[in-house]
Structures are given as C-alpha cells and as structure tokens.
Amino acid sequence: MYIAIAGNIGCGKTTLTNMLAKRYGWEPHFEPVENNPYLSDYYADMKRWAFNIQVFFLSKRYKDVLEIAASDRSIVLDRTIFEDAYIFASNLHDMGMIDDRDYANYLSLFETMISTVRLPDLLIYIRSSISTLVSQIQKRGRDYEQSMRMDFLQGLHEKYENWIKDYKGKYIIVDGDTLKFEQNPEDFQKITDQIDARLYGLFPDV
Predict the structure, then answer these.
(1) Torsion of CA 110, 71, 39, 109, to 10 degrees
(2) Gap between the Cα atoms of 24 and 22, Å rounded
(3) Rounded distance between C-alpha atoms, residue 72 and residue 82, angstroms
(4) Is residue 202 very low, low, confident or very high in pLDDT (cuts 50, 70, 90)?
(5) pLDDT score for 205
(6) Where are the alpha helices (DSSP H) in 71-201?
(7) Whose CA is closest to 55, among 28, 25, 32?
(8) What three-state secondary structure class fits 8?
(9) Is 100 in contact with 26 (CB distance < 8 Å)?
(10) In sequence order, which residues have a C-beta less than 8 Å from that of residue 138 and are 6 or more positions away?
(11) Which CATH class for the 2-200 domain?
C-alpha cells in the first residue's frame, strides 16, 4: 500500500507522516530537506537556483517512486512527485523564476518519468491557510525559510487548491487550521478515522 501526504510548506506533512507511520506500521519516506545542497542558496536567490532545486527534488522523488514500486511494504510518503511539477515548478515558472526554455526542459523530463508512476492508494491533503503556514514556518525556525516570499507561498496555496479539485485518485482533506493533530489525540483520531474509512471501510470510494 502506498499513502502520500500532500500540502504546502509548513502544513505539518512530516509530522503527520511520522505519526501515521507509527500508528499503522507504515514505512516513512521523507522529503530531502536536511541533505539538500541547494536550499539555503535557493531561498537567498530563488531566480538563480529555482531550476536546479526543482531538478534535484524531481530526481529524489523519482528515486522514491522506484523504491515504492519495488517494495513489498506499505509506505507513507512525505510529498509526491506530482506536486513538484504541477505546483512548485509551475509556481516558479509563473513568478518568472524559471524561464520558458528551462521549464519546457523540466516538463519533458517529468513527463518521461511519470509514464510509469501510479497514483497513491490514498492521498492525504493538508489544507492550511497562509496565516497558519506562516505561523508554523516561524515556529520551526529554519533560518533559510525566514526570507521566504509571501507571494511564493500564496501562489503555492492557489495551485494546491486547483490541483486537488481535479485530482483523479482517492483522497481525503485534513483541515490544517482546526485539526491540531500533533497536540490533540482526538484530532489525530479524526484523521485516522477518515483513513480507515477510505482504505478499509465497507464503502471506501464514497
């Protein structure tokens, strides 16, 4: 089984990935943040490093896809390869941070990769307002994120909302503004109840 957590920067994907891995015994796969050689440079000069960082993430995410396909274990993934292209690269292109030539090159590479990629058995989208995201980004205190542009974050939010409306697979939406799943066991239970219903319920597709 392949479960994926989707959502904007600071919404709590890594936290929820850890919690679900522990709850269900799933194997967690995390976004490459700590060992990313581009992050600090990217947030300091997005236009210079946007294409580089997107290719880096695409490469790492495709490696996850291959590992998932070869694994006989249930896996929960922190962010999907689809978000890299449809949300992050697209947003950077719209902002003028990736030019048309590089973006076309990126999309050609992405389309080749996803020809063999299947959708998750369940996508969990954490929907959070910009104010919640900013608060959580400040709280976790990563130095390189403190210079993040508000229009960048807003653009990602809008693309996530458009993407989830047209998403073709099975998914649930977690309200990241009201469900404090890290602090409140009852809120976490609400999420696992939804997961159980969609994966194991009598009417999982309803």
Answers:
(1) -10
(2) 6
(3) 22
(4) low
(5) 60
(6) 81-83, 90-94, 100-114, 130-140, 150-165, 185-200
(7) 32
(8) coil
(9) no
(10) 146
(11) alpha beta
DSSP 49-106: HHHHHHHHHHHHHHHHHHHHHH--S-EEEES-HHHIIIIIIHHHHHTTSS-HHHHHHH
- Whole-structure pTM value: 0.91
In this predicted structure, the answer to whether residue 116 has a pLDDT above a threshold of 90 is no
Q: Name which of 92, 167, 94, 93 is nearest 127 in CA terms.
A: 167
pLDDT class for 117, splitting at 50, 70, 90? confident
Longest CA pairwise span in the chain (Å):
51
**Sequence spans of domains, the chain:** 2-200
DSSP 8-state assignment for residue 2: E
Positions marked active-site: 78
Q: How far apart are the first and last CA of the chain?
A: 19
Type of residue found at 9? I
